[in-house]
Amino acid sequence: MRRPLAAALAAFALAAPLSVTWAKDAPADAQTYLRRIAALDDAGPQINAVIVTADDAGEQARQYAGSTPLDGRTVLVKDNIETREWPTTAGSLALADNATGRDATLIANLRAAGGVVLGKTNLSEWANFRSNASTSGWSAVGGITRNPHATDRNACGSSSGSGAAVAAGFAWAAIGTETDGSITCPASVNGVVGFKPTVGLVSRTHVVPLSASQDTAGPMARSVEDAAMLLKAIAGSDPLDPATAEADAHLVDFSEGLGTATLEGVRIGVVRGRYGGFEPLGQVWEQALADLRRAGAVLVDVEYEPSDEMGEAEYIVLLHEFQRDIESYLKGSPADIPVRSLEDLIAFNAVHALSEMRWFGQDVFEAALESRDVAAYEEALVTSRRLAREEGIDRLLSENDVAFLIAPTRGPAWNIDLVLGDHWIGGIGIGSMAAVAGYPHLTVPMGHVEGLPVGLSFIGSQWDDHAILRAGAAYEKARSVEIPEPSFRPWAPWGATAAE
Q1: Within a domain: residue 211?
Q2: Which residue among 35, 163, 201, 322 is least enclosed by CB atoms within 10 Å?
């Protein structure tokens, strides 16, 4: 349960510095994290990243400590992933009673490895796939998530709560899900590490679906090593998810070798033009490239411009797979829920418009409802994958003889605006290509623009997950710039004092 604490406790938590050493002392951490959530998420600046917590997390952590791979480390879980303790809502009031009493396969794996489910995080409702005019990080269940680095700024989506919670020091790590940018964007703008693994490395069983061809869960943490530890715990084949058939063949200790990883002599494909023409971001990007050169990397300029054709085909795929797969999920839920189809969801939102559609509508839902042309879907799936894989990432890697590709992940966080919706800078990053391809994508903090974090993306080919993590860890060691800690205040110019 969530219990707001006294003002004195809030003052204690606000004064407590963030520390990655918490991850080494897991049993004591659970209560520390719960106190911090009460003081900074429920009260104080009200980050609004966490929607429910486990009262017995400290007891669970002590039981796991010393005998399991994760030693009772605490993990927050995005609320589209089923856990046996609580309803799984995807942020929608339509699923407020979706208490299935079951764990997603990845959660069962997490518990088996000694991870403690500390609670569930807010998200962009329906993984930000309800309206083209949405505000990222908002759900009817959880409200709007705030960015701990600037509480009037967006935490991005759809894994907004997971990214903000890790940045705010509410848990050792968190699990998000991504279809296209939903792990990497919130990780980037919240100044944490986010890893979207190869699709099929982590099971999607009992995860509220968007796209069978692109959905995956992945870790969000304060270091690449911690993300790798969490990935190892949750990954693996699942007979209930055919996409994971090859996962066990690619399982390794993803944290192995990270401490000694080097970029000496490694050829890296630098996708030069993908910073949106935003010069402050370009300056941070150039510093990251300088750090990589000092680390011994061989930087190779790579030319790439996103294809409108790929994006158009992807949208056809997402619409069709969502209407197909969400109806399967809703019909299969053992909970007593009022919706069993996409048509039911649309009707529910219309009836509950004041709560569900005050800020934006459901035009994407309505488009998905009409997306039942199987032949058009199959053609779009072939097209989007070809452009993202054979003519995209695989071609760029092969033609330029590079191990992986890098680019800025996203621009800095934009102002929260429930009236007008999201308004980020376009033309940044190459994450959509990795999302459509189903290939691994790691974002690591590379600096900030006026105190607002920005990330560096590492993208490789299918099953290159471990190599990408090693590269990110090597960059972490080489990085020379300051990574800001959250202020838990509205944005102010970097270095400004309260008097200014």
Answers
A1: yes
A2: 35
Supply 352's token pair.
């509950």
- What pLDDT does residue 8 have? 32
Residue 84 near residue 212 (C-beta atoms within 8 A): no
Q: Which domain holds residue 316?
A: 9-478
Q: Quick check: is 500 in a domain?
A: no
Res. 307 pLDDT band, cuts 50 70 90:
confident
**What whole-number percentage of the chain has pLDDT above 70?**
93
* Region for residue 276 given its phi and psi (left: phi exceeds 0; alpha: psi -120 to 50; beta: otherwise): left
Each residue of 393-409: pLDDT tens digit?
999 999 999 999 999 99
Provide the pLDDT for residue 468: 98
State the Cα–Cα distance between residues 179 and 215, nearest whole angstrom: 5
Q: Which of 214, 191, 210 is nearest to 202 (CA)?
A: 214
What is the distance between the alpha carbons of residues 382 and 395, in angstroms, rounded to a whole number? 16
So what's the pLDDT on residue 372? 92
Q: At 76, phi and psi to the nearest 5? A: -95, 145
Average pLDDT across the chain, whole number: 94
Domain annotation covers residue 486? no
Residues in the chain: 500
With CA atoms as reference, report the closest residue to 475 among 445, 452, 449, 448. 445
Catalytic center residues: 78, 158, 182
Query: Do 134 and 91 touch, CB atoms closer than 8 A?
Result: no
Q: For 299, left (φ over 0), alpha (ψ -120 to 50), or beta?
A: beta
- Integer angstrom CA distances of residue 99 from 182, 334, 346: 24, 8, 21
Q: Which residue do the tokens 């994958």 mark?
A: 385
Query: Nearest CA to 179 among 214, 220, 229?
Result: 214
Distance of alpha carbon 106 from alpha carbon 295, whole angstroms: 36
Q: What's the number of domains the chain is made of?
A: 1
Residue among 300, 313, 312 nearest 382 (CA): 313
Under 8 Å between Cβ of 418 and 458: no
